[in-house]
């Protein structure tokens, strides 16, 4: 138990990932909320949205050419397919298509018409795919076809306009040349000079070249392209179906839930795993107590046959017994970080019973002098009148005359020094009688267990650490913060003690804790049998776990041990006599 705590850096990465994943799964509510949000969103998209239909047509773009069958003729000569895609989604195409659709009875604005159009170009091709999405199949088909034909019409018009412009330019160049040729022809008739004849011949050559270019332009094939695939009315709506949407929504919702769990995990100050608890406290984990329904009603698990909780307490007691640090002093302080003291109370009583079962002379000291309740709870489980320290008689000289033997059926007995309400708690805890009682742990075969209030709520536990030294912290991981454990380690270390380990306690439910608090405030002089009757009348659970008539049920037997009673040695003697 005193071996050094292995650091997280020494853990293999898969183990850390598994631990983190388990921590995320602890926030099941956030995961469920995320999945529900994803499913609701996908269901809203699948059921609340309108069905849409997409029709697709393909247009093959080509350039104007004089002889498409000539050798070396290329259809992509001078075509920039990126510019053609921009032309296909331009307002000019939308205007032409809108006019065509109006004639067919589908009146639509240009902006609205172009909002449903998507033009793509497959790689390494001169093909434009016109995909149009509309509310009905026929509307999608008609609009896709109108836009594709409008694009071809716009491109044809632009090609023909370019040819006409070039022809007009050549004609503008040809007119002065023709006029000059006619003048030279008149001069040649009159004078017949060689220079006039040569100039006229040159003009004829230039005029012939321009006429040839005009003829070539007029002979160009201005077909802008072909509608390779006419749009057809789709038979199924576009988008994912409801089952696929629900599946995607569940996946997205799970991812959202994991994200929320991760954020919650990052900002969660509570201890998230036993590994983190061990690292924060700087001490090993002694044991994790299982949950038992019977344990929620009974304070003492030792002596109850077939109890897994009792076996775990026995395992912890054996582990402490063989620890070298504890074996030297045999003094143990049991406390909790903060909150109620029920978990530490159950651990202290059961460890005392376990050590008594091992034949040790056990002395259990209740150092909770602010809200002492251990004597009343043990007396409530015993038939007949309670011991003298449970009769309500005030004793301001604690711990004098506060001893009583507690007999655990079938296990042994231990001596209890019950707590008393004291005006000056620090003075009482540091008094000489308390020091003498704690020193009894130095006797051979003796064990002293001190039940202290929460270490972060009061300084009572710190006042005892210098004489007890060995500390066991009992806690519920989800109810303690990492900073609290680090502070406990620093406080106990500064006071001269050491943390032997931590014990994870399942705790009790709220109704059981409420019943125990009610039992603690009942009149101390009330007989145990009457208290059981009151519990049945009030509908409260019995801490001893017994039902029926208390006179017919075996329970704890609290034997009065006053000043002349069995004293400290009664535990071993009682156990031996019973055996």
UniProtKB/TrEMBL annotation:
Q: Which InterPro entries match?
A: Bact_polysacc_biosynth/exp, P-loop_NTPase
- Highest taxon above the source species: Bacteria
SUPFAM superfamilies associated with the record: P-loop containing nucleoside triphosphate hydrolases
Q: List, alphabetically, the Gene3D superfamilies matched.
A: P-loop containing nucleotide triphosphate hydrolases
Query: Where are the compositionally biased (Gly residues) regions?
Result: 561-572
Which residues lie in Basic and acidic residues bias regions?
531-540
Residues crossing the lipid bilayer are 27-47
Keywords noted in UniProt: Membrane, Transmembrane, Transmembrane helix
Q: Does the keyword Iron apply?
A: no
Disordered, as annotated region = 514-579
Q: What is this protein called?
A: Lipopolysaccharide biosynthesis protein
């Amino acid at each position: 138990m005193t071996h050094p705590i292995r650091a997280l850096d020494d853990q293999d990465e898969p183990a850390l990932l598994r631990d983190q994943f388990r921590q995320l799964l602890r926030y099941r509510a956030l995961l469920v909320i995320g999945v529900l949000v994803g499913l609701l969103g996908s269901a809203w998209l699948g059921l609340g949205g309108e069905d849409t239909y997409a029709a697709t047509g393909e247009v093959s773009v080509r350039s104007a050419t004089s002889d498409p069958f000539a050798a070396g003729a290329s259809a992509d000569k001078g075509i920039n397919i990126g510019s053609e895609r921009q032309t296909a989604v331009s307002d000019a195409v939308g205007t032409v298509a809108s006019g065509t659709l109006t004639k067919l009875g589908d009146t639509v604005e240009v902006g609205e018409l172009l909002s449903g159009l998507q033009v793509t170009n497959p790689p390494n091709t001169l093909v434009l795919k016109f995909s149009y999405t509309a509310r009905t199949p026929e509307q999608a088909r008609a609009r896709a076809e109108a836009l594709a034909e409008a694009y071809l019409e716009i491109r044809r018009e632009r090609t023909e306009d370019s040819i006409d412009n070039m022809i007009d330019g050549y004609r503008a160049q040809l007119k002065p040349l023709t006029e000059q040729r006619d003048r030279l022809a008149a001069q040649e008739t009159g004078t017949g000079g060689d220079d006039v004849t040569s100039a006229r011949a040159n003009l004829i050559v230039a005029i012939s070249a321009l006429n040839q270019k005009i003829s070539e332009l007029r002979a160009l094939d201005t077909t802008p392209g072909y509608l390779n695939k006419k749009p057809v009315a789709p038979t199924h709506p576009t988008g994912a179906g409801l089952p696929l949407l629900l599946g995607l929504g569940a996946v997205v919702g799970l991812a959202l839930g994991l994200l929320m769990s991760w954020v919650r995990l990052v900002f969660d100050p509570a201890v998230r795993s036993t590994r983190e608890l061990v690292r924060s406290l700087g001490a090993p984990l002694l044991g994790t107590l299982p949950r038992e329904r019977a344990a929620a009603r009974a304070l003492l698990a030792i002596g109850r046959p077939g109890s897994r909780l009792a076996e775990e307490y026995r395992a912890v007691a054996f582990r402490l017994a063989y620890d070298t640090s504890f074996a030297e002093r045999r003094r143990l302080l049991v406390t909790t970080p903060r909150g109620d003291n029920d978990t530490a109370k159950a651990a202290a009583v059961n460890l005392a019973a376990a050590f008594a079962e091992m034949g040790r002379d056990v002395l259990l000291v209740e150092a909770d002098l602010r809200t002492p309740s251990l004597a009343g709870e043990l007396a409530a489980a015993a038939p007949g009148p309670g011991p003298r320290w449970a009769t309500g008689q005030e004793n301001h000289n604690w711990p004098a005359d506060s001893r009583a033997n507690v007999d655990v059926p079938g296990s042994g007995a231990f001596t209890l020094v019950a707590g008393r309400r004291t005006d000056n708690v620090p003075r009482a805890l540091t008094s000489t009688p308390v020091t003498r009682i704690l020193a009894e742990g130095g006797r051979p075969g003796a064990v002293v267990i001190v039940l202290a209030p929460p270490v972060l709520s009061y300084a009572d536990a710190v006042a005892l650490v210098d004489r007890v030294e060995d500390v066991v912290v009992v806690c519920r991981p989800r109810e303690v913060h990492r900073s609290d454990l680090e502070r406990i380690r620093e406080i106990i270390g500064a006071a001269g003690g050491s943390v032997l380990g931590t014990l994870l306690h399942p705790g009790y439910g709220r109704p059981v804790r409420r019943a125990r608090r009610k039992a603690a405030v009942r009149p101390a002089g009330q007989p145990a049998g009457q208290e059981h009757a009151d519990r049945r009348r009030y509908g409260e659970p019995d801490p001893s776990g017994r039902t029926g008539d208390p006179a017919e049920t075996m329970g704890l037997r609290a034997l009065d041990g006053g000043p002349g009673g069995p004293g400290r040695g009664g535990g071993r003697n009682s156990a031996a006599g019973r055996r």
